[in-house]
């Protein structure tokens, strides 16, 4: 087992083209303290669990005193949104601290959840560079962003009723809304009953 200073970092993500990330310094937490520590997680990166008693442990993990191997990056991410693949949804998914490489050759990523400051900074910079007024920008955003989006559990409820009971009562209102999801349709929107979606289970 190793001390914090003995951890071996191999930051391969940082060697990717810069389009995959911006460098980002976190804003330090005020009066931060340890809430929970998992020994098994420490052992995975070959860190001596007793290092949790290090006086600077919390400051290191919250980047007040980053380790020399840390290379702080805001991770970009992509995905499907509103039926389309978006190659860059943002760069606030997580703040990468570094990639620990164990003596067995395994790699584990250390990161903090969320890094929205990087995205906000870029967004504000873009707004300042545009000549578009706020009212015009709002109209443009509403023009390309639908008012109504089909949720998975609504589609699954409609599908099961149609397949199992030949009941299309849930499909018809959904189709009415989705034929033109940009327009207001107050007559088609109704409160949903307080029931669980099909197959819904609480994760523990």
Rg value: 24 Å
Mean pLDDT: 82
Counting DSSP H or I runs of 4 or more residues, the number of helices is 6
Q: How does the overall form come out from the CA principal axes?
A: extended
Let me know the number of strands: 5
Q: How many angstroms does the end-to-end distance come to?
A: 31 Å
Strand line-up across the major sheet:
1-4-5
Q: Give the amount of beta strand, in percent.
A: 5-15%
Number of domains: 2
Low-confidence parts? 200-204
Roughly what percent helix?
25-40%
Q: What report would you give on this structure?
A:
The protein has helices at 39-44, 57-61, 116-129, 134-144, 152-165, 171-178, and strands spanning 73-74, 77-81, 84-90, 94-101, 107-113. It has 204 residues and is of the alpha+beta class. The protein has two domains: 4-125, no CATH class; 152-188, no CATH class. A hairpin with a 2-residue loop joins strand 2 and strand 3.
């Amino acid at each position: 087992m190793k001390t914090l200073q003995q951890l071996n970092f191999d930051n391969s993500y940082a060697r990717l083209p810069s389009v995959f990330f911006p460098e980002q310094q976190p804003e330090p937490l005020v009066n931060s303290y340890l809430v929970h520590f998992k020994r098994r997680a420490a052992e995975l990166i070959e860190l001596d669990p007793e290092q949790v008693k290090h006086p600077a442990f919390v400051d290191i993990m919250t980047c007040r005193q980053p380790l020399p191997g840390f290379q702080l990056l805001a991770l970009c991410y992509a995905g499907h949104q509103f039926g389309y693949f978006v190659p860059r949804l943002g760069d606030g998914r997580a703040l990468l601290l570094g990639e620990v490489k164990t003596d067995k050759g395994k790699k584990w990523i250390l990161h903090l959840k969320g890094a929205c400051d990087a995205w906000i900074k870029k967004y504000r910079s873009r707004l300042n560079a545009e000549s578009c007024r706020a009212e015009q920008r709002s109209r443009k955003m509403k023009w390309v962003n639908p008012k109504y989006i089909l949720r998975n559990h609504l589609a699954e409820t409609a599908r099961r009723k149609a397949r199992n009971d030949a009941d299309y009562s849930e499909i018809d209102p959904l189709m009415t809304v989705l034929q033109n999801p940009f327009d207001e349709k107050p007559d088609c929107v109704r409160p949903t009953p307080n029931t669980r979606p099909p197959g819904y289970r609480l994760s523990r």
